[in-house]
Amino acid sequence: MKSVRFTLAAAAAFVVVVIAAGSPAPALAAAGGVKPPEHNWSFDGPFGTFDRAQLQRGYRVYREVCSACHAMSLVRFRNLAQTGGPEFTQAQVAALAAEFKVPDGPNDQGEMFERPARPSDAFPRPFPNEQAARAANNGAYPYDLSVMAKARNYERGFPLFLLDIVTQYQEGGPDYIKALLTGYTEPPAGVELQPGQNWNVYKPGNVFAMPNMLNDGQIEYPKGADGRPQVPETAQQYAADVTAFLTWAAEPHMEQRKRIGFMVLSFLIIFAGLLYFTKKRIWSRLPEHSPGHT
Amino acid sequence: MAEAKSMQAGEPTRRDMLFLATGALGAVGAIGLAVPFVRQLAPNAQTIAAGAPIEVDLAPIAEGQGIKLFWRGKLIFVRNRTKAEIEQAAKVNLASLPDPQADSERVKAGQEQWLVLYGSCTHLGCIPGGSAAGEVRGEFNGWFCPCHGSHYDTSGRIRKGPAPVNLPVPPYAFLSDSKIRIG
Amino acid sequence: MSGPSTYVPKLGIAKWLDARLPLPRLMHDSFVVYPVPRNLNYFWTFGGILMLMLVAQIITGVVLAMHYTPHSTMAFNSVESIMRDVEYGWLLRYMHANGASFFFIAVYLHIFRGLYYGSYKAPREVLWILGCIIFLLMMATAFMGYVLPWGQMSFWGATVITNLFSAIPLVGETIVTFLWGGYSVDNPTLTRFFSLHFLLPFMIFGVVILHVWALHVTGQNNPTGVEVKAVAKDTIPFTPYATIKDAFALVCFFAVFTYFIFYIPNYLGHADNYIQANPSVTPAHIVPEWYFLPFYAILRAVPDKLGGVLLMGAAVVILAFLPWLDTSRVRSMNYRPLARQCFWVFVVVCIMLGWLGSRPAEQPYVFLSQVFTALYFAYFLVALPLLGLFETPKKLPGSIAESVLGKLRGGSGSIVGTAATAEPNTKG
């Protein structure tokens, strides 16, 4: 049956060629976009945790730079105080909330009114609806950032997409966002940008409606004991901090998930071991599995 | 060999220990697995946050008037009692009450005119009338439940009818003379 | 396998119940004394694993339904509320989402076991067809379930796949309108998909009962493909042997499942589904979940819309005809060297079709999809029918006992409690 062997060999050759050429991971296409570099996040890996100070700085960056255009309507002020997050105190959260006004009502006269936000309120939207947001931003819509860190990814390619199962790489979204925020350059020669367009190295298609928003020294960070900021006040640092904050906002229970995961997986491995020996013990009653045989 | 000997002696063997350990771990695992499924029934974080204590401004409530508001989905009566109502409540012989409780135990010291009650009849949960003008107040000048005829007095205590206990008082505290926090 | 019951209830309450409803007897006959071939390998544990995955999906699904709002304006946010506010909500959601994937991992391994060992052959044709029905119901359930979070992939996947039905001549457009409950995928579509997604698993459960019943009539196949000849020599009782082996395999499977839930919960999903459904923006590449990718590749391999739909349907339905397409008298491919090679080529073809399903519908992927689609159908329509007629199989063992115990002195080994065992006393 030489024809069968030939088919087998041909199929094998096909497989080798195609896998080597292809990139099987079904994620957002990177057509025109460069793969972002992998940043060392504090929350990487099975034992990763969020850096509280970084999350608090990240909230600061969101508050001072991003919240003018971007909503985070699924995040509530009280989330800022819960364990596993920035862990502001309740008093700080009440104060942070009170900085904002939120719509409420109708009152007894039937009118809507504004009141200071409470911890149980969600982050207020900068625009009442999508149309108003587009009108204020040249027709582009500043997306809600609540789950943005999970809503973005990039093609990892072969063999990374398989190795990611073992290395637990799930920071495609954060790596992309951080790179995007600091990925602005001049367009290459011969490319004309329309007004309202910006050139970004990492954006698929390169043309991005959002301009560069982070510059060195833009935001003042808390000072350490020596009177100097604890981390450099650079655009790269702002980008890392706000991205970490967005990652927490998308997955507020990540630390609990990894912690419980360690306990459950350890339990199951031990239990599987016990079951294995139990199985062997019970099956040893059969002649073909008893010690004297084979 | 040692196992055969210990089996003859009736002691637990290594095999028994293995089975016991496996079974015990299985039981622990089953209980652990059940935990999230039971816990998810608890009120979620937003419900708990929406049920946080609220502040009520007492200034708009005139003497002899009461308001109704919702907290944690339950109706609450806040009443500014007249002097006559307070005296009526204090004069009652406690032994004659189905659920004996002094009026002073149901209000805050120095703020006896303010009565804060859950507005749910303790019989089967209807809303007793008597807070607003024009509502039937019953034989004891307090509240009257139209469902099965329970009469409450000016302290919200049950006097007549099928309700077993007095209208309960929610947890509250005075922040100032004109403001309370419920919860 | 199905003879008169030998059950004698010992406890008073068991006797009382058994006289009124022979449930204790049924449990005893089916899961305690039920004879199982003694040479089964771990590929036979996937049936039990699938049963547990079905129960797991139903329980996590019912619990999620307590917090989910099936309305297009609130669905996405209700899922996020589960993730953020419900106690352990994130865990329940990830269990259910990854549970669907692991349900399909187990079912594919279960199906491929059947393909390799010829478990679809007589007298197990009905068992096999019931399995195909379960597979179809699973695909419908998974498809509708994926729509419920109302993300971009939910919405656009639903749009693409429901639009396929318009390819049916004459009644196609009406069918699509009735599926949608409107003029496009919108709230009526979501609410009816929620209702049916809740219903179908219980229908799967019913067909599973028929499936296990059919299995218990014929008994399990085994790696040699040689049927049980002498129950005493060829089989062992289900309890304790299969019970403990299934339990061990289950915990191992659960360990891998757990790894995904807790450490890489979004690996098998798609980032675009964390974007709320937007009817005016189509994602750059619409892809279904990984378990549908091979069929998606076959669908897109055909330039004609109706042709693609028919071929994709044929790719699933052709499984039901296997008992008659495979002409070999030998069941297990352990003894069919040429068929075995074709089988492994088929496995590679399926994996390649899966990869191609994730690629954009451009060249060279379209051409490759056509090649591998042809190979896929060639396995069923060319290889298996012809090989059965022309292949020379290897010599089969005389019996299961011979293949397992042949090395023992005299080859006359029997089941539990003989002198050959290591335990001087055995329980039960």
SSE topology:
The complex is a heterotrimer of chains A (294), B (183) and C (428).
Chain A: H1 2-21, H2 52-66, H3 90-98, E1 101-104, E2 113-116, H4 130-136, H5 148-151, H6 160-167, H7 172-181, E3 198-199, E4 207-208, H8 235-250, H9 254-283
Antiparallel strand pairs in A: 1-2, 3-4
Chain B: H1 2-8, H2 14-39, H3 45-50, E1 54-57, E2 66-71, E3 74-80, H4 83-90, E4 114-118, E5 141-145, E6 150-153, E7 158-160, E8 172-176, E9 179-182
Antiparallel strand pairs in B: 1-9, 2-3, 3-4, 5-6, 6-7, 8-9
Chain C: H1 12-20, H2 23-31, E1 35-37, H3 46-65, H4 75-84, H5 89-117, H6 125-147, H7 152-163, H8 172-180, H9 187-218, H10 231-234, E2 235-237, H11 238-263, H12 293-301, H13 305-317, H14 322-325, H15 337-357, H16 365-390, H17 400-405
Antiparallel strand pairs in C: 1-2
Helix pairs in contact in C: 3-5, 3-9, 3-11, 4-5, 5-6, 5-11, 6-7, 6-9, 12-13, 12-15, 12-16, 15-16
Structural account:
- The complex is a heterotrimer of chains A (294), B (183) and C (428).
- Chain A has nine helices and four strands, in the order αααββααααββαα.
- Chain A is globular and about 85 Å long.
- Chain A has helices at 2-21, 52-66, 90-98, 130-136, 148-151, 160-167, 172-181, 235-250, 254-283, and strands spanning 101-104, 113-116, 198-199, 207-208.
- In chain A, strand 3 and strand 4 (207-208) form a beta hairpin.
- Helix content of chain A is 40%, strand content 4%.
- With 183 residues, chain B is an alpha+beta fold.
- Chain B contains four helices and nine strands; from the N terminus they run αααβββαββββββ.
- Chain B has helices spanning 2-8, 14-39, 45-50, 83-90; strands at residues 54-57, 66-71, 74-80, 114-118, 141-145, 150-153, 158-160, 172-176, 179-182.
- Chain B has a three-stranded antiparallel sheet, with no helix packed on it.
- In chain B, strand 8 (172-176) and strand 9 (179-182) form a beta hairpin.
- Chain B is elongated, with a radius of gyration of 28 Å.
- Chain C has helices spanning 12-20, 23-31, 46-65, 75-84, 89-117, 125-147, 152-163, 172-180, 187-218, 231-234, 238-263, 293-301, 305-317, 322-325, 337-357, 365-390, 400-405, and strands spanning 35-37, 235-237.
- With 428 residues, chain C is mostly helical.
- Chain C starts with 11 loop residues before the first helix and ends in a 23-residue tail after the last helix.
- Chain C has 17 helices and two strands.
- At the A-C interface, helix 1 and helix 9 of A face helix 4, helix 5, helix 11, helix 15 and helix 16 of C.
